[in-house]
Amino acid sequence: MNTAVPTKAVKKRWFRLGRVPQAVETDEAYEVASQWKLMWWKFKKHKIAMAAGVVLVLFYMSALFCEFLSPHLPLDRYTSYKNAPPQTLHFYDKESGFSLRPFVYDMKMKVNEQTFLRTFQPDTSKKYYIHFFVKGPEYRMWGLFKTDIHLFGTKDMRAPLFLAGTDDLGRDLLSRMIYGGRISLSFGVLGIVLTLILGLLLGGLSGYLGGVTDTIVQRSIDLLICIPTIPLWMALSAALPRDWSALEIYFGMVIIFSIIGWTGLARVVRGKILSLREEDFTMAARLAGASDLRIIRKHLLPSFASYTIVTVTLSIPATILGETALSFLGIGLAPPVVSWGVLLQDSQNLETLAHHPWLLWPAALIIVTVLMFNFLGDGLRDAADPYK
Amino acid sequence: MLNYIGYRVLQLIPLLIAISIIVFFIIQLPPGDFLSTYIQQLELSGTKVDAGMILNLERQYGLDQPFIVQYLVWIKNIIVDGDLGRSFQWNKPVSEVLGDRLMLTMVISVISLIFVWIIAIPIGIYSAVKQYSILDYVFTFIGFIGLAVPGFLIALVVLYFVFVNTGVSLSGLFSPEYVDAPWSMAKVMDMLPRLVLPVVIIGMSGTAGLIRVMRGMLLDELSKQYVITARAKGVESTKLLFKYPVRMAINPLISTIGWTLPALISGEAIVSIVMNLPTTGPILLRALMFQDMYLAGSFLLIVSVLTVIGTLISDILLAWLDPRIRFGGVAD
Q1: Which residues in chain B have Cβ-Cβ distances shorter than 8 Å to A234?
Q2: Within 10 A of A105 (CB to CB), how many other CB atoms are there?
Q3: Do the domain assignments include residue B82?
Q4: Residues B182 and B315 grouped into a single domain
Q5: Residue at B274 is within a domain
Q6: ABC transmembrane type-1 domain: from which residue to which, for each copy (chain B) (predicted)?
Q7: pLDDT per residue over B61-96, tens digit each?
């Protein structure tokens, strides 16, 4: 009966055609859940994106509380510790044995007699314990009230505590990086707000009105896309008046980035509106006598809000990188403003960098931030259409 | 086909005019015109500048006229005489300053574009057919890094590691003995190995982006009905893959030259500053620092026009490859 037919060894296909349909959840909660709830459920499954979100929240919190978190002030100079390397935290010492409270050793400068290079050696005779909530240099929290409490530091205010090293003026790199985060990270968000307004407005008008408006907006997008971005950014920000204050330059750059950067978002919005305009629910709303504005606000906007969020998330890092690149080249923000790009200016010279490699740390922060935004955007994109 | 090309070329004209207006606007942006700076510089260097000379220069560039007239004079000078204006910083005509360097920029950008394709297309195909394999994850990860890390940072880190480990500074494009030498076969041969690093760094983000596009497009194609039908009829996997889905998926790659090329040129500008390549990037930066706007503006104009031409070529290529576009069948 059961004749075993010798099956020809089926050659394993080296790719799979067609994908296995995902298991469809059919329980009740799924069927009554709102669009945003579905998205949240789907987003939660994306572990990397969740982790990226947490990291970004931490970064932005540190930018918000940078005065409190940094042990020194960004412009304070420790003239006897110029170009000092990062210190290591110690828990163990030969004399005192193990201590739970971490400490750092003092540093002694040595000049190499042949090369005249100055190097620092840890001086184990003097050590400084690190305490939490210590009194340090005075600052104004958010420019509002004076205080001198720092999250961590040494009891002695002038003691060396340079966990990320110092620059050529003896300024603490760690504090400068934390302060720089405030400028660089906020630049990404502020830059996107104006971009969002321009993109939504122009893309929305272009898609909903069609006709001449559409043609004009589409042609301007074509135009902006064919001018290489970085040279255009460079030219525009170099043209900002030299006598502007740091704040004016900052906002001037935000405006430059938005004027060039709205095209991507406008395209997404227009595409979505064009397809949604033809959907049955729009027609139903129109037949029921809803006004244009109501249709846009109540029916169209919520339908593509998720796509807007994705595009925005993915374009924040581009803005941050743009600011960094321009400041790095010296035509964006300039000292005494501290941003990650400004900090990287110090590492432009190869020989400086070879002797003081810790100056490259801000680059690591930039890379991490941009990667996290990309991961987050990827997770959001997968979650953006929960009905798929 | 000819009709299509003619139509596309005609479409470019308003675009080119718009670009030139934007560039001229940027040239005019900084306070004070370039002539007053130029005269100031001449006076500083001890040259007597008489009123007649100023008047002559003013007339030559139409500086006593309103914006529109100035623009027309500028455009006329460019189209009729090929005169892009003067760089007061170099005290030479702009075209002389840019000349050689512009060629190097284009060479590097085009080589980068080819590099991007050679690397991205096979990897994209592999990642799509072996979706969720280990190598697919590896490529996706590398792609993420390539997209996230800007070229100038990669350049900085690579330069640093090479310098620390070997003591060799990789910046520049020529060995010292060839820097000022006229072009010769030997000079080109000297340049080629030094070209590898910039090309890889500049092409990095483009490659990462293109792998993602290629992978996505091919995945879409692979799950379509016609592939399943062909499989059911017994068409061999490899043949099927390369004959239909890959061909379909490559289309968008060609149509994206329009934005890949400007992105490469953008990246080239900044990487070449970090690596100190004798291309247009460092010139642009220095011009901007001194607000030498005719030089900077001309650079922007030339690069944009070249990009537009690149896009045109890609459109023509696409129409040649895809009859649906040639005959106006695709309306998206």
Answers
A1: 269, 284-285, 288, 296
A2: 18
A3: yes
A4: no
A5: no
A6: 102-318
A7: 666 677 788 788 788 888 887 777 777 777 778 888
